[in-house]
Amino acid sequence: MASPELHRFTLPNGLRVVLAPDASAPVVGVSVHYDVGFRSEPEGRTGFAHLFEHLMFQGSESLEKLAHFRHVQSSGGTFNGSTHPDYTDYYQVLPSAALERALFLEADRMRAPKLTEENLRNQIDVVKEEIRLNVLNRPYGGFPWILLPAVLFKTFANAHNGYGDFVDLESATVDDCAEFFDTYYSPANAVLTVAGDLDVETTKTLVDKHFGDVPARPRPERPSFAEPAPQGEVRHEHGDALAPLPAIAIGYRVPDPTTDIDGYLAYLVLAGVLADGDGSRLQQRLVHREGIVIDLNAGCGLFGPLEARDPDTFSITAIHAADVEASQVIAAIDEELQKLAQEPPSAEELAKVTARWASTMHKEHDRLTNRTLGLGSAELLFGRAELIYELPERIASVTVDEVSAAAKALRPDSRALLLVKPTGGAQ
Amino acid sequence: MTSAKTHRTAEEIGRTETGPRPLPELGSQKAAAELSTVDTTLPNGLRVIAVRRATVPMVELRLRVPFADPAGTSAGSQHSAIAEILANTVLTGTATRSRVEIDTELALVGGELDAVVDPERLSFTGNALASGLGTVLEVLADVLTGASYPADEVERERGRLVERISLARSQPSVIAREALQKLLYGDHPYAKEMPEADEVAAVTRDDVAALHGRALLPRGSVLVVVGDVEPAEAVSQIGDALGAWQGEGEAVQLPPLPKVSGGDVALVHRAGAVQSQIRLAAQAIPRTDERYPALQLANLVYGGFFSSRLVENIREDKGYTYSARSHPEFTVHGATLLIDADTASDVTAAALLETRYELARLGLVPPSESEVDTARSYAVGTLLTSTSSQGGLASFLVNLVALGLGLDWLVAHPQRLAAVTPEQVAATALEFFAPGNFTGVLVGDAELLKPKLSALGGVSFQ
């Protein structure tokens, strides 16, 4: 894929900046990625990184509460933020006339957010509603992103619930927020990305104008979250009173994408061979031939591929018929993995996965929000924003033997097995 | 977080020596490039719209076939069940291709093709690398003219569909949607978004094949193609590929809907629910109505975006909800206004109170000039961003065309929004957002909700 020009520079306060001009539509995307996610929140404060993300929208020195939303939307733009294991992102996508405004809004909250008791209490309530909506009041809530790490990992950082426990959320204080901000939201710990309809020189000047005087603070040392892969098969049964059908999630470890990206990509291709499309091996067998599985997925990363550093997860999930034992589904998956381990997939199977990934990446780039966020996270996690343009080619260069080796590495004696059991009785 | 005090206080963080700074003005806005397009009808009656948008080397396809139940009522009708099986098996085989072969052929050009059905239409959505357009069209033509509905595939999908329906109906949002549609439209086919398990079980392969022959028709259908293509070439490619798709008569449009009138909110009990779904609805006007742009802005100010009165009240002020919104929903014949909010059980009644209060306030204390301007800029800006991708433009366009509108409506809409006055917004607010116009459902744990909802009133209990 042709890589469009990228411009990179670093401000004296340490803020890394990526500019990706593209004049195909008069719209522009601005994002800031901070190098802190829910793996960094301390014990007793589960969910804090996400709660703090909410607070960053609640006003700053130049912006009253609600002003951030109003300024973005009255400029014709959209916004959001999201919290991941290793980073937290914020973005605006707007008509390009509003570029300077978006830079101003991001700079103001990077410099001086207003962290108040009233806003904290309000957003704790909002976050609790978010958790009720997405986890507590629905079937398969948090499956597998909250439930599987608790089985696959042992350390608090990797295993805990990133949405947080209500007790922990309610215990959060304004001083916790101040400490979290001062520690992790330093400009030296962030990447600013601007993509779309922009003039490079003008944008450089505007970035410097708005972010240049955000005071420098040290970049926090990033701890290693490394922990050994599981010894044996770690099983956990989870009762779900709202789920009508049983489900399984199998979790494995994958190579560290920051040091061995091509090794990691072999697992990504393996996921496609297993579960992408009616012709993929597990869909064909479990969903269509044997008809024992209703819904099946496989993939790298519980939020998508290449969105976390080590340790990351390869997962296979299946919702299966109630009269089918989980062990039957698991045995069939193991058998298919073993076949791939013994005999590599065909060149045609890889060609299908490669072409579909090329399409997927094109579609991602065509949506400015996704392109902006993709550039920013690749720069933050891998130091290479251009990675998102290189991926189709790198995926295409994964060999059948590498996919076979990846399948071989997904061993039953080093994995997590999560079994979701419906406990709602007649439902 | 109890470490030695090495950080600033929240007060220190929130101020700088310089003090608050002024918001930068907007720069000048470039117009979107004009789109090169061809809009034509093939001899078989299929309308085809091709648009060039070469941002990435991809092409997006949307085929929409009106596919309503010709019976006036869904009571005793097998249509929904047969249509659902059809959508799930139309891509599972033809005289020359198996399910796996279809998937393989598409995958090799980076392509996908899916079919879904709802009470109004059967929709095929696809995309591929632009070089693979021919392949996607070939596969599409093959299934349209020769889907064979292999008996084993139909049988398996029947079983799977029953399970998928039970999965869907375990979701609170689906429970609420089905209850709302039933309340609004009773046995009208529009209300039947999902068949019952016993209806699905009764569907035969021959039923599906017969429905295909009878209802999957080019006349009245539309195909939109957006991407890195030359429109004239794409249209001729489509004509060659889909020319063989023929059929008697015209694809079946949804019959007109009964008008929505105001009434009590019906409580739907869901034992053990920790959150409630509030779903309100009222009659609105279609996009073709000259008052629509004013209604669009009034809706934004009410609950149509984050900076709306409803969200600022029940989320940002009171913390009753994570998600609250209002939005118009269009059919071929008209439109409704829908309000959705999910709230914890103990604040559900209070959230319903505020939701009604904001409805009344929108008419009585109409949107200020600045509220209207914010909504207007948002409407114009998001139209630009949402149609700046191939997929976004294709989806937007196929929806418009189904309502009898086209690309020219999209292009002219910013001017229409620019012309709306605060007085016109106030008039539509007063007429369409009056609390008495609304009816709806509320799904939640009745035991917990009843005392406060009884006190509030305007809620009926089963």
From TrEMBL, chain A:
Superkingdom, taxonomy of origin: Bacteria
This protein's UniProt keywords: Hydrolase, Metalloprotease, Protease, Zinc
One Pfam family here: Peptidase_M16_C
Transmembrane domains' residue ranges: none
InterPro entries named in the record: Metalloenz_LuxS/M16, Pept_M16_N, Peptidase_M16, Peptidase_M16_C
Biased composition (Basic and acidic residues): 211-224
Ranges where the record places region Disordered: 211-232
Acetylation as UniProt keyword: no
Membership in a protein family: Belongs to the peptidase M16 family.
Protein name in UniProt: Peptidase M16
Species assigned in the record: Lentzea cavernae
TrEMBL record, chain B:
Segments for region (Disordered): 1-26
Domain Peptidase M16 N-terminal stretches: 82-193
Domain Peptidase M16 C-terminal residues, every copy: 203-377
Entry-linked InterPro entries: Metalloenz_LuxS/M16, MPP/UQCRC_Complex, Pept_M16_N, Peptidase_M16_C
Domain of life, per lineage: Bacteria
Pfam families documented for this protein: Peptidase_M16, Peptidase_M16_C
Protein name in UniProt: Peptidase M16
